[in-house]
Specification:
2 copies of one chain form a homodimer.
Chain A lengths: L5 E2 L5 E3 L4 H22 L22 H18 L3 H16 L9 H5 L14 H19 L3 H16 L16 H12 L2 H12 L33 H18 L2 H17 L32 H18 L3 H14 L17 E2 L21 H9 L8 E4 L2 E4 L5 E6 L5 E8 L6 E6 L3 E7 L8 E5 L2 E3 L3 E5 L4 E6 L3 E6 L9 E6 L2 E6 L10 E2 L6 E5 L8 E11 L6 E2 L4 E11 L11 E2 L2 E2 L2
Parallel strand pairs in A: 5-9
Antiparallel strand pairs in A: 1-4, 2-6, 3-22, 4-5, 6-7, 7-8, 8-13, 9-12, 10-11, 10-13, 14-15, 15-16, 15-23, 16-21, 16-22, 17-19, 18-19, 19-21
């Protein structure tokens, strides 16, 4: 199977829209520097000095290497997007430090080298050795692709070579699979950067022997939560730990694409379908329970604080959907990418760039008990700090998700304003500008800056009922192929009315409730914008809803305002037969991804209807 | 503080109503014999032979003694209600066996004597030693009070004397508190049976030093889940493990009553208020989360399978409310007793008497993941089998909850049909008959069978908007004192229309939903009674609802029937902007306590309104 599309190189698309551009800017200015400081302050960097001894503070944790790797990946992107000599000096120092921690045989893991020297590969399912290796590989490839630096890449090739000498079906090798997937997609990425087929073959081994390999060296573990109680090709529903799941599926898509394994791709698409058609929040969040941070059952999507919808899982779903669109060319898959990116993925980080949600709830009420009190508000860091470090590497890559290329066709996946320099397979390149206020405005202008013959395409969103493209004043159909001249402009009008959305009735949590969306955005009502508790807000079926500019949110943000109903009860009985008092009530709703940026407050996405 | 009322002796009230009487019959005929067999088959009885050795099967568990004790308590009540020579022989054998397991110093615990001989009193907070002791004491008192048998009572007095020699503030004694409360109320009961003040004093010690005593001999525990992170008098909200909580509060009420400790009673009432006004399901269920089987926060009352509402907790709440009514004479407390007894307590056992819910959910949908698959349907037994054994001792005692006595006033707490023989404080007794179809019919006749001068009172339920008492054709006010003649009949008419109940809007799980009640009964819609999924049922505010007799439920059962709305969606999208299709739909609702007696099916108590 050949890749149908490939995503733009992260650095070739520069968003200048009201939604992503400020987030990327904050990531470079705040998120990455903050995460770097946290890695230093918590001992994660010093761990690579390998001088930790029992009794000392900051015992290297099994997942610490991954945090450093993810921040280094982000640093590489940052340096490519915005060169900075000081940052580069630190980056190079960290590369040296990481490389210095490599053992003579190629092994590289701070925890198992210092804390459990006898534990190497002893508990694949519970520990994070191969997961950390995967993130280090991604960091190494990023440094090579973004900056042309080979030192870390060479180091990680040695580590990958060593891993390849340990695991596999060949005589003398050990069979096994990682409890936390990541190595699979990382090895395919390493194969892409190096052309070394051994890495692709090892990735395919980890995918194909998962749930098959005898579970050696394991004691206490739950294979179900790790997608390993049966072979991946026999898995039909997304289950277990949601982050691990989407990392695995991304690895499956990557291996299937590179090896032409149609059956594996089909299994991957079937798992993706189980997410998008039955197990995903309207925000693109995934993981219905904090227990095991996991998927549960079809349509079980509770909105309160027992849900999970981890930030990392949403970012992982964006990445997976991008891979699957590229592989299939099915634009409907981009609806999931877009919905998740604009809502459940970006909700996890504050506009200030230094506060993070682990879980992205759809309803928060101050009466409600959170399994972890710190999860109700965005936090600067976590003991298990995967989400903050994921943003450090995810946000600089957003450009990837806006454009894809196939042959000499360019495909605008998300029409956010900005600049793109896209390379065709034949070596030519084209430069374009996207203008407009998307996602707040559906009028988009695609301006060609350098001409040439190529095909221009733009996704028609699945949520859109009216979509018109025009060129030189005349309606045109997309894709449109022509010999483009500099200045040629295609205008796309995407109708984006406010929609009152209903959940499938199998989602009993949403019964009798509706959510507001407009275009790709899901809206949330924050109690601070009401004159009464959000729990008393009821949405009439014919609610008149207007668009409004917000002065207390980033420039360009469109909020919804309208007249609804407040339903209040006299007295404070726990249960009452008295009918509630209904009065008219003004309400305001803000994009879900922007909630809790003006202080902590109660919030609801799904509003009871009247 | 003197007890204002005391509840009738269990054996002096014989229900003959359509609700309790068949349950009690099944308990004697099925539940107790079945639980006895389980105690034998699982090794719980053999454990008292003290011959378990490492490597043998059926290692005595830390809570096994309590299961045997609770079943023996039920056997004693059963023998009093319905003598049976065969059962009595087994009962006497079991008494001999339990007594034979007592150690020379009085200690009596199968687990710590055989499995962890060095563990005695070493982990009070995590283990169940004092909990088991409490249940053995209750069994011993029951055998003495119900059957006049002293052997087990004497044995447990020796154990209690030994416990008293170990724990307390006096020099040479150890301070501590049990992780699972029960010993406190049991010791007060032992005091009541023996008159020995030492037991009352020890109960008061355990209550008063709880959350105060240094936590000796403890390692890993969560004092919050065990109501021990602060002194009980400083506790204001019901928190932690719900069963433990209500057992503690019952012990507090008992100690407060017997010692005249008004401050302690006030603390107990404050905790009870936190349950009834903010932390209780409409069914009387308590415990909002399966995590720690615990209370969470005010108004956090999710209806799906993440809730708990353990059967034992509901039975404990009935017991607590009975104590608090007796202590205060506040009839509003009986609304909680009645609501819980008729709904969340009896829902936990099948009509057949041999299947049990651990958790009593308010909404079950087959799409929904249950943290323990076995909790969705009633089970014959559990590894941790507290609920089945609780029914074995709870159901035979239901008579206690129908009548209370104060001086020469008799108070009809729940007007279920049946016979009562009540003893006044002055030694006289009175015999009465209650007639009628309560809880399905609000017309109640109280017929005096033996005359005499006394005061007759009957509770006016808090849910009732019309309550009329009449005597000899004339309206009368209650309480009514007179010199009653045999055959005198007071008629009470309790208005019980169907009510559409709303939750306090702070209960976000119930927003936009309503529940149906009639009299003390909460109704549930079972999917098997609909022509479509229960999740598609919507209740219009003006729904016309009729009463109907049910041919597929026990004789006399009144179900609700009416016309509502079915809301269905074309297609199977996870989220849609298409408005749902509304059609008229017939529905039927059955008493919550009777649900899932005609096979497994989806169910909902809170119905979305339209």
């Amino acid at each position: 199977m050949q890749e149908v599309y490939r995503s733009a190189f992260f650095n070739s698309v520069k968003p200048a829209d009201p939604f992503f551009a400020p987030r990327i800017k904050k990531c470079l200015e705040v998120t990455i520097p903050t995460a770097m400081r946290q890695c230093v302050d918590t001992g994660r960097i010093d761990a690579f000095k390998l001088n930790w001894k029992p009794g000392m503070p900051n015992q290297p944790h099994v997942f610490w290497d991954s945090d450093v790797a993810k921040v280094m990946e982000g640093m590489a992107y940052s340096l490519a997007l915005k060169p900075d000599a000081g940052l580069e000096r630190v980056y190079d120092e960290w590369v040296d430090l990481v490389v210095s921690a490599q053992q003579p045989d190629g092994y590289l893991n701070t925890h198992f080298t210092t804390v459990e020297p006898d534990g190497r590969w002893k508990c694949l399912a519970m520990q994070h050795e191969l997961y950390c290796a995967g993130h280090l590989i991604e960091a190494a490839v990023a440094g090579y692709e973004a900056l042309g630096k080979r030192k870390l890449l060479d180091c990680l090739c040695r580590y990958a070579d060593y891993i390849d000498s340990v695991f596999g079906l060949e005589p003398g090798k050990r069979r096994g699979w990682p409890g936390h997937e990541e190595i699979e997609l990382a090895l395919v990425r390493l194969y892409g950067a190096t052309g070394c087929e051994r890495y692709l073959k090892l990735a395919a081994y980890f995918i194909n022997d998962r749930g098959v390999a005898p579970r050696l060296f394991e004691n206490k573990f739950d294979p179900g939560n790790k997608q390993a109680d049966r072979p991946v090709r026999e898995q039909t529903d997304a289950y277990g730990h949601a982050v691990r799941a989407v990392y695995l599926y991304t690895g499956m898509a990557d291996v299937a694409r590179e090896t032409g394994d149609g059956e594996l791709m089909k299994a991957c698409l079937r798992l993706f379908d189980s997410i998008r058609f039955r197990r995903m929040y309207i925000t693109g969040g995934i993981g219905s329970t904090f227990m095991g941070e996991a998927f549960t059952e079809d349509y079980e999507l509770p909105n309160g604080v027992s849900m999970y919808a981890e930030s990392c899982a949403a970012m992982g779903l964006v990445q997976l959907a991008d891979r699957l669109f590229n592989a299939t060319g099915d634009a409907a898959i981009l609806d999931v990418l877009e919905r998740t990116l604009y809502n459940g993925a970006l909700s996890g980080i504050s506009l200030s760039g230094d506060r993070f949600f682990y879980s992205n709830f759809l309803e928060v009420d101050d009466n409600h008990h959170c399994f972890n009190a710190g999860y109700r508000t965005r936090q600067p860091w976590f003991a298990c700090s995967c989400c903050p470090t994921s943003y450090a590497r995810f946000l600089p890559q957003i450009g990837r998700f806006l454009w894809s290329v196939r042959g000499d066709e360019i495909f605008l996946k998300i029409p956010a304003a900005g600049h793109a320099e896209l390379n065709f397979d034949d070596g030519r390149s084209v430069s374009l500008r996207v203008e407009g206020g998307y996602p707040y405005d559906g009028q988009v202008r695609i301006v060609v800056e350098t001409g040439g013959e190529f095909t221009l395409n733009c996704r028609r969103p699945g949520w859109c009922h009216g979509f018109k493209a025009s060129f030189e004043g005349r309606a045109v159909a997309l894709p449109l192929r022509r010999n483009w001249q500099a200045g040629d402009t295609v205008t796309v009008n995407i109708d984006m009315p406010v929609e009152i959305m209903h959940g499938n009735p199998r989602i009993t949590a949403d019964l009798g409730r509706a959510a507001l969306t407009r275009g790709p955005l899901v809206y949330a009502v924050e109690e601070r914008d009401l004159a009464f508790p959000v729990r008393e807000l009821r949405l009439p079926s014919g609610a008149g809803i207007q668009l409004a500019e917000a002065s207390d949110l980033p420039p360009g943000t469109v909020v919804l305002e309208g007249e609804a109903v407040r339903e209040s009860f006299a007295g404070d009985a726990l249960y009452t037969a008295a009918a509630p008092l209904r009065t008219g009530a003004h309400f305001r709703a803000v994009p879900y991804a922007l909630w809790q940026n003006r202080g902590d407050t109660n919030m609801a996405v799904w509003l009871p209807t009247v």
